[in-house]
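Good morning C.,

I know you're traveling, so I'll keep this short. The sequence:
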Amino acid sequence: MATASVNGITVSYTDSGGDGPVVVLSHGYLMDSSMFEPQVAALAPEYRVITWDERGHGGTRATGPFSYWDSASDLLALLDHLGIGQAVLGGMSQGGFISLRAALKAPERVRGLILIDSQAGLEDPAAVPAYEEMERIWLEQGPEPVRDVVASIILGPPDGPVDYAPWFAKWDAIDREEMAYPFRCLVDRDDITGRLGEISCPVLIIHGTADAAIPMERAEAVRAGLAGSVAMVTVEGGSHAANLSHPDQANVAIAEFLQSLP
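The tokens, ready to paste straight into the viewer:
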């Protein structure tokens, strides 16, 4: 992967190159840029597809506490580094949190948004204690005691279409102390639901019906709050990472959305 020194950190990223319209894809919590391999394969070379590792994930280190607003600044600084004025921003879960904030910070830079199993609000208060406990166990003992539960939440059931093994290997390699920073960013984030009306660019929402982390009504709330045109695609049986569990459906929806943009 290439690296860029931006916004005070070193970001790892991939760039398919070419002179097509730019699409930047931002991954979810505990994932990395490789989760979009099915989308890069489907979209390039017609589109210039950029994926990147966010703070505390993959090849990008987190050196201290940060917020999703900081991550949005990282994303915009990466665009600056690559000489890109405007792009379609896509994101799965926390990647959507980041993309929405980038659209609020710099609306002129955002041609459109693709939100995959994401939302604008906070974590369900009823779920936070369980997440905190899984984080405590992971930090103290490593991922093995909780990784099956975590994988089922993100990737779907163990007998589903997504292979757990590559992600288990990645999770085993994560620096436990550093992991605390992205976790606190996730659970302590602010609610931007009240600002969705400031976003007027075209938006595609893709959401799996079997998403165990973010219920469908959260996606509906985003659709209701946005000011511009919104297309919503429901992926029957799709996991929290619907672009991985059902890549063909996600790829068709993304391609049609990109082709519809002026």
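Safe travels,
E.
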